[in-house]
Amino acid sequence: GAGVSQSPSNKVTEKGKDVELRCDPISGHTALYWYRQSLGQGLEFLIYFQGNSAPDKSGLPSDRFSAERTGGSVSTLTIQRTQQEDSAVYLCASSRMDRPNEQFFGPGTRLTVL
Amino acid sequence: GQQLNQSPQSMFIQEGEDVSMNCTSSSIFNTWLWYKQDPGEGPVLLIALYKAGELTSNGRLTAQFGITRKDSFLNISASIPSDVGIYFCAGQASGNTPLVFGKGTRLSVIA
Q1: Tens digits of per-residue pLDDT, B23-69?
Q2: In 3-state terms, chain B is what percent helix, strand and coil (to 5)?
Q3: Disulfide check for B6: which of B16, B31, B68, B102 has CB 3.0–4.6 Å away?
Q4: Contacts of B6 in chain A (CB under 8 A)
């Protein structure tokens, strides 16, 4: 497809369960970003990939959060032992290497932890 | 850490009116960007600004990169109903640092 895609679009889970969120970036975009958006808030940076490596993991809120990227394309954000405060919209974005600040966003995954 | 103050938080305007919103930062940014987010969608880039003092237009939208590099504004002229949404400013300190986002301005347009 032409844009960034994310799956699932919605995820409802019980507290304590693990979840995996997937992002497919725009073809040819080497940089990939994960953000979290809580209700009525701006976007909180989580992690950034250049190719398959993550030079900046500074935004991951706890060690329950991890992310990986394989083949320089698809990325998975994993949240272990989910907590209610993890409920948010998780947004993925990608960009060209020469235009790292022009990020194109996917529609997001709305995570609800009961 | 760096923070962006975006104002106003929300606006209700009549169709046809002009709109102005702004962002200020406690520190310098080298890039300013403005995004719009519709319900259930990710943010869409509207305008990117790369130089202090730069004034850039995209249709009815005009944005400026403040001369101090600590602020930016976005103007929308002759608003229409499809302008409804949440507008976010974002700043970047240098090429490989994360974008820092404001909390958004929610725009409602009354026909």
Answers
A1: 999 999 999 999 999 988 999 999 999 999 999 999 999 999 999 99
A2: 5, 55, 45
A3: B102
A4: 42
